[in-house]
Amino acid sequence: MTNKRDSLNKISVKPFILIILATISALIMIFTGYSQGHRMTAKYSGLIGAALEIKLEATYAHLWFEEIMSGDENERIDNVLRHIDQSIWYASAMLEGGSNESGTFIALDNPELRTIVQQVIIELEAFKILTVERHNNLVISRPGSDIDELYDKAFIKFISLASNIEKNLKQRVVAELSEFQHLHFLMASLVLFIAMSMALILWRHEKQYADYFQVLHETQGKLEALSNTDQLTGLANRRAFDTTLTAEFNRAKRSSTSIALMMIDVDYFKHFNDTYGHPDGDKCLQKVAANIQQLCKR
């Protein structure tokens, strides 16, 4: 009994350990998911937005400059150059990081993409120089001229580079999202495994407790039977007699009935015991008790 109780005490600690492990695992999964999702959002949303802004600002510059070349006196070259400078700023923010009213931009950490962005900046600066040159030579740089074709090619070139950056960034988002999902699947599997292990140990724990209480109940019954039984004859002893008499008296009182008490005496038992000895006397009492047990049905 002592060994079994000690074993149960040791087992009872395991469910709490598993609960703690499951809780910690769930918290780690939540924290990891939050931090990774926040990192992906902060990193890639800004970078993709910057790539779009590069194309948008450069496109504005190109459109307004074409309006100037078409004779629109309301447009100014300063506005065109401002858009080109904004496009260069967004490209620089992708390399060095930065923030403005549009948001915060985290610097690229991929060498291949950084090389492409650097090339975009070079092309944008060349595009700016070409814009100024065209504006200073309006006569020879009209639509359809050689410098006009060169200008359009320069525009298309860095727009294509910016589009490649945007496409690459989106692919990286998809790839990291896939890794993110795999990580969550593994962590969810871990939490499920711990929960199942906890359920199994709790079941075993409860089963052993049930077995323990069953043994305890049976032992208690045996002890109670021994305490109410005469060891020699196997009949109920004086303690059982007193308990039963009290119970029967109370029941008769409640139901207004009577009770009968019969006393049995073994004639000349002392003489028999003195003549043949205590062992034979004990056997005699055991035979009398056996006859009484056969006669008593209730």
Structure description:
With 298 residues, the protein is mainly alpha-helical. Helix content is 80%, strand content 2%. It has eight helices and two strands. The chain has helices at residues 2-11, 13-69, 77-96, 111-136, 146-227, 238-255, 269-276, 278-295, and strands spanning 98-100, 103-105. Strands 1-2 form a two-stranded antiparallel sheet. It is rod-shaped and about 155 Å long. Residues 7-11 have low confidence and may be disordered.
Task: Summarize the topology.
Blueprint: H1 2-11, H2 13-69, H3 77-96, E1 98-100, E2 103-105, H4 111-136, H5 146-227, H6 238-255, H7 269-276, H8 278-295
Antiparallel strand pairs: 1-2
What kind of sheet is the major sheet? Answer: 2 strands, antiparallel
Distance between the termini: 35 Å
Query: Whole-number average pLDDT?
Result: 79
The proportion of strand residues reads under 5%
Poorly predicted ranges (pLDDT <50, ≥5 residues)? 7-11
Written as H for each helix and E for each strand, in order along the chain, the element string is HHHEEHHHHH
Determine the fraction of residues in helical runs and give it as a percent range: over 70%
Strand arrangement across the biggest beta sheet: 1-2
- Tell how many strands the DSSP assignment holds: 2
Principal-axis shape: rod-shaped
Compute the number of helices: 8
Secondary-structure class: mainly alpha
**Could you tell me the radius of gyration in angstroms?**
49 Å
